[in-house]
Design brief:
By secondary structure, the protein is an alpha+beta fold. The protein has 4 helices and 4 strands, in the order ααααββββ. The chain has one domain: Nuclear Transport Factor 2, Chain: A (Roll). It has a 4-stranded antiparallel beta sheet. The chain is globular and about 40 Å long.
Length: 137
């Protein structure tokens, strides 16, 4: 075996191992870790398309059903309603479809708010299926 053949074989084997391990690492995230990734993407998002990959099929279908010329206004309202900071996940409870998260955060007035977040598994990936928030005043 020549040394260049060994290098090529080793390179191919290494690339195959990385390709196989990458999806496993992504799947090993918890629902809580997924939600925190979603919050980061949501906070940076400039349009609804930026967060569609995080949404369940049902929620993505709702967005698709919204007339294209109304989506920007809809997203503006979603961004206003979702303007929270200091997000902290208090509890992650497994469900048949995925998990329900109990979350605490600060609203735009810096008042404590609590939320319930439904995260489901679709095609082996976590997806956001719903959020509800209420003030703790």
């Amino acid at each position: 075996m020549t040394s260049s053949y060994r290098v090529v074989s080793l390179t191919v084997a290494l690339c195959a191992a990385v390709a196989l391990c990458a999806p496993i690492g992504a799947q090993s995230k918890t629902a809580s870790q997924f939600y925190m990734d979603y919050r980061t993407a949501f906070d940076k998002a400039a349009k609804i398309d930026d967060v569609l990959p995080y949404m369940s099929k049902q929620r993505a279908d709702q967005v698709a059903a919204t007339p294209a010329d109304e989506r920007a206004k809809m997203f503006e309202m979603i961004k206003m309603m979702g303007a929270i900071t200091d997000v902290m996940i208090l509890k992650e409870a497994k469900t048949a479809e995925g998990a329900t998260l109990t979350v605490e955060a600060l609203d735009p007035d810096k008042k404590k708010t609590t939320g319930t977040v439904k995260v489901i598994k679709e095609g082996g990936a976590w997806k956001l299926d719903g959020e509800s928030w209420s003030s703790s005043s």
